[in-house]
Amino acid sequence: MVRFGVVVFPGSNCDADARHALSTFGDADVRFLWHKDTSVGDVQAIVLPGGFSYGDYLRCGAIARFSPIMQAVTEFAEAGGLVLGICNGFQILTEAGLLPGALLRNTGLKFVCRYVNLKVENAATPFTGACREGDLLRIVVKHNEGNYTVDPATYEKMQANGQIVLRYVDAQGERAAGANPNGALDDIAGVCNERGNVFGMMPHPENSVEAELAGGADGGKIFRSMIDALRPAVPA
Amino acid sequence: MNEPETETQLDVRVYITPKHGILDPQGATVERQLPALGFEGVSEVRIGKFIELKLTPAADAGKEQIDAQIDEMCRKLLANPIIEDFTFAVDDQQ
Fold this sequence. Notes:
With 236 residues, chain A is of the alpha/beta class. Chain A has helices at 15-23, 68-78, 88-95, 152-160, 211-214, 220-230; strands at 2-8, 28-34, 45-48, 82-86, 102-104, 112-120, 136-143, 147-149, 164-169, 188-192, 198-201.
C-alpha cells in the first residue's frame, strides 16, 4: 500500500474528493494531514487539494503557504518526496516557491467551471508515468485564478528541462484559442519543478476517477502514475 | 516622578500594483468602461491593492530598521514579488 497524505487547510473543499479518489485504488492508503500539524508522518506522497484556503484572502494560497504543515511539506519535497498540488494546491506551491511562476486571475475575469482537454507534454514524470506523451485527458477545471505566468528566462529553462507537463488543447489535441479556459501562458495547465517531484495542475483529476459517475476516468491516471512510481518494485 | 512613556505608533500604507508587463484584465476592463461614461483620455488603468496597518516598532529601532521590517513584510506576505510591485509610506503617530 502506498501511503498518501491529503493536507486540509481552513477553506480547502476538495480534500474529501481527493481522499475518495485515492481510495478507489486498491493499493493506496490515504490519511488527512491537518494544517496545524508539524509533521507529515510516514506518508510517501502528499496532495495539496483544491478549495479556497483562507478564503483566497490577499492572494490565493498566500496565507496557507505559511501553515505549520508547510514547513514539513517543504522538507519532504526537498528530500525528494512526491507532492501534487491541485488547483488551490498549485497556487499554494507557487506561493511557497516550491514551483516556479504564479497563478493570476483568469483573463476573462469569470470563474470557469467546465471540462477541458489536456495534452500530456511530458510522460516521464512520476505524475504522468501511466500516460504516453501526447495522450489526451478530459478533466474538469473550476477556478477564477488559473492563469499561469512565469518570467521568460525561467520559462525557457522550464521548457528545456521538460517542466511543462500538461497543456490545454482542443478535443482533437490541437492548441486552439478556445481550449484555454484562463489565458495561461502558452496554454500551460500543469508544471513540475526542476527535480520533477513536485507537480501542480489547475484541473481536478480527483473529479474524473469513476467513469460511471464522472463520465470519464482520465484523472485517475495522475494518481495511478504516482502509486506506480512509489510501489516497491515487484521482483521478476 | 517619571513621565509615562508615549508609545510611537506608526501608520503604514502599502500600495501593491500588478507588475508592468503582467496583463491586468481588471484594469483593462475598467479602462474600456470609462469612455462609455463620457471620460476620455484615460489610459494604462491598473488595479492593485491598498493595505493600511499600524506598527509599533521596537524601542531602539531606527528608520532603516523599520523600513527593512516593512519591506520584508511586503516581500514575504503582503505582495507576491513575482507578479506585483509595492511601495510603502510610513507616518509617525504619537
